[in-house]
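WARN no homologs supplied; continuing
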Amino acid sequence: MPEHLAAGRRKARSGPVAGDLTSLQLLRALDTSPRGLTEDDAAVRLGVHGPNTLPAHRTTSWPRRLAHSLRDPFTAVLLALGLVSAAVASWGTAGVILALVAVSCVLRSHGEHRAEAAMAHLRDLVATTASVQRREGASAAPSVREVPVDELVPGDVIRLGPGDVVPADVRLLRAHGLHVDQSALTGESVPVGKEASQLPDDEAGFGRQGLCFQGSTVAAGSAAAVVVATGADTRFAAARLPAGARSTSAFDRSVHGISWVLIRFMLLTPPLVLMANAALRGRGLETLPFAVAVAVGLTPEMLPVVVTTCLARGAARLARTRAVIVRRLPALHDLGAMDVLCLDKTGTLTQDRPQVAGAVDAEGRPAPVALRWAAVNAWWTLQLADLPAPDTLDEALLDGDAFDVEEAMAYDPVDVLPFDPLRRLSTAVVRTPGALGRHTLVVKGAVEAVLERCALDEDERARLHAAADRLAATGVRLLAVATGERAARTRGYTPADERGLVFEGFVTFRDALVPSAEDALARLAERGVTVKVLTGDHPATAARACRDLGLDAGDVADASTLDGLDEHRLAELAATTTVFARCTPEHKARILTSLRSGGAVAGFLGDGVNDLSALRAADVGICPLGGVDVARESADVVLADKDLAAIDHAIAAGRHASGNIASYLRITLSSNLGNVIAMLVAGLLLPFLPMLPAQVLVQNLCFDAAQLALAHDRPARRVLARPAVLRPTPFLRFITGFGLLGALADLAAFAALAVTASAVHDEGAFHSGWFTENLLAQALVMLLLRTGQRPAPRPLRLAAAALAAIGVLLPLTPVGALLGLEALPVAYYALLALILTVYAAVLGLLVRRRRQP
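OK structure emitted
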C-alpha cells in the first residue's frame, strides 16, 4: 500500500483529527486538493478503503434469519406446544410439531432471502448518489458528476445542496448558508449552522462547525467539502445508533390484531379439553397430546410463509413490470389497504417544469425590469452557490426567451445567499456596471417573505398582497422580486442584510397539467382511494389546478389556520377537506396523523426534504426515483417516475397480495375451527379419542402445504376495487359462521360412519373415515371460499386435487396403516359424496349471498 494512502487512512480512522488540522494540512494529509482526485487515484483508494457502506447493511445470515422467524407469534406458540409434548414423552406429536416449526421457519427464511436478493438486484435504481468533483488525469480540468455513494473515498471533493444526505464524514472547504439536520445523530430537532474555516476547530464531537457527518441531512444552503472518512470509519458507524421506531402500520393493525385473538383461543383450548375429558370421561394427562393437537389444529401454521410469499411475489412483479420498488414488504399490504392518498400538486398534478408567463408591477402593467433582475438572481445563484442543479423556477427563468446570458454576465458577482425553506427566498449580491462603490442585493422568493423585507408602509404592503392574491386566483405561481443598494464592503452578506428593499414586481409562472393526471385520478376514485392535495401554493392556485383535472376541491383550507385546532377538530377537518394550501412540513405530518387517527389508511407521495416528516407519518410513504436522497431513504415505496398511474398499479398489486392473504386466513381458519368444534364434540361422545394426535398433525401438514398454492391465486375484480383491510369483528364473524357449517358436515360424516362401518365402536374406522372426509372437505373449501377469479388457476386446482387424493388413498397404503388408518366400505364413500355435495352447494350459496369481510 502506498505510504501516503496508508497515512491518509490512519488519519481518517482517527475521526476528530480532521477538525484538528487546518484545511491545507488536511488536504495534504489526504493527498488531495480542492480540484478533487483523479479517476485512477479514486479507483486505487476504493481498493484500499473498501466501499462506503455501513456494516449494518450487510446481508442477513441464514442463522440470524431463522432465529428471527421464531419471533413470529404463531411459530413461537407452535414451538411451545412441541416442547410441552416432548416434556410428557409424546415423541410422535412433538416430532410432527417441531417439523412444522422447521418447515415454517425455512420457508419463511427462504422467502425473505429471495425478497432481499430481489431488492439488492434492484437497488441500483434507488442507489444514493453524490455529486463528486474528479479529474480524468493529473493535468485535466475537474468536472462534477454523480457517482454511487459506495464509491466515495477519502480525498474526494463533493458538492452538497438542500435535501442531500451527507454521504460520508466531510470537512467543509466552502459553505453558503449551510444548515444541517443532525437529528439522526444527536437528537437535535433544529438544523445546525455549519461554516467552512481554514483554521482548526476547537469544538468536540458533532458540534464541530467545519465538519459534517454521515447520516445528517442538508436542510438549507450549499457547500463543497472533502471526504475524510467512509464506511465503517465514519462517526455514524461508530455510534451504532438504533433505527427509529416506526409507527404501527395498517399491516400490523389488521393481520397481527387477528393473530393475537386466535393465539388467545389456542392457549385456552388445551386446558378446556383436559377439563372436559376429566369431568365427562375420567381421563387424565393421557389426553394432553390430544389437547395439544387440537390447539395445533386451530393454528394457521403457514401464515408467516404465505404472507411473505404473497408480498414478495407482488413486490418482485411490480419491480419487474412497473419499475416500482417496495423497500419494506409489509408496505405492499398497506398500499392495498390505502383509502386516502395525500400528495403535493407540483410534479404530480401539474408538470414540474413551470414556464415563465411574464412579469407585472403592482398595477398589472408589464415589468421587464423585474424579470431581468429575477434572471440575474437565478444565474449568479447557480454560479456561486455550488448547487448541483437549479431549482425549477430558476431553471424556467434561465430557459425563458427573456434571459440573456451576456446581460447577466455584465453584473460582477459578489456573494450569494441560496434559497432555504425557512427564509423562502434567495439573494444574489452583484456589482452593477458603472456603479462604483455600490453593491446591489437582488432578492426573489415567496411573496410574503419578500414584501416583509421591503421598505413599505402598511397600506402599500396590503395593496401588493391584494394584487398578488388577484394574480394567484388566475392560476399562476408567483415570485416577488426586490432590490436593495448597499455600500460596497469586503465582508460577506447575511440574511440580516435583506431589509429595506425596493419592490420591483411579480414574475408569474404557469404550470401545465400532467397529461395523464386526470385519467389516473379517475382510476384512483374507482378503486375507492380519496386523493387529498397538501401544497405550499396559494389556495386559489391549488383549487384551480384541481378543478381543471376534475377533482372537486370544495372549500380549500388554508393550513395556517390549523395551528389553532385541537386534534379532534383537525381530524374532522382532514376527513372532509380535499385541498390544504400553504402547508408547512409540520402541517402535512399533522394532517396525515389526524387521518390515521380517524381510521383511514393514509399514503403520502413526496419527493423533497420538506416532505420527510409526512413520509414518516403516513402508513406508506411513496417517493419517486428523482426525489432527494433523504426522501428516498425514508420512503417505503420508490417509483421510477412521479406518476399517479404507477401508484394505481402498485395499489392493485397490494390488493392482489392482500386478497390472497385474506383468502388463506378465511379458508384455513374456517376449516380449522370446524374441525376443532367437531373434534371436541366427538371427544365428549366417544369412548376413544376421535383422532390420534399424529393423524391430526399429518392432516394439518397436508392442508397447510396445499394452501401455499393460494399465493398464485388471481383475486376477483371486486377485491381489487376496494381497499383490502381485514377488520377483526366481521372477519371473525365470517370464520365462525363457516366454521360451524364445516362442523355440521363433519358430524354428518360421523353419522354416515355409524351407519356403514359401525365406527361408533371401531376406533380405526372412525379415524379413517374422518381423516378422509376432512381432507376432501378442505379441498372443497380451498376452491369455494377463495376470493379469486373463476376458474381457479392451475396451481390451486392441482393442490386441491392432490389434497383430495391423499385423503382417499392414504388410508389404503402402508403409511396409512402406520398412522392407524384402514380401508372403509364402499357404501361410506357413496354417503360421503352425497354429504360433500350438499355441503358444497350450501357453501357456494352462502358465499354468493354473504358479503365477505
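The two ends are 66 Å apart (CA to CA).
OK
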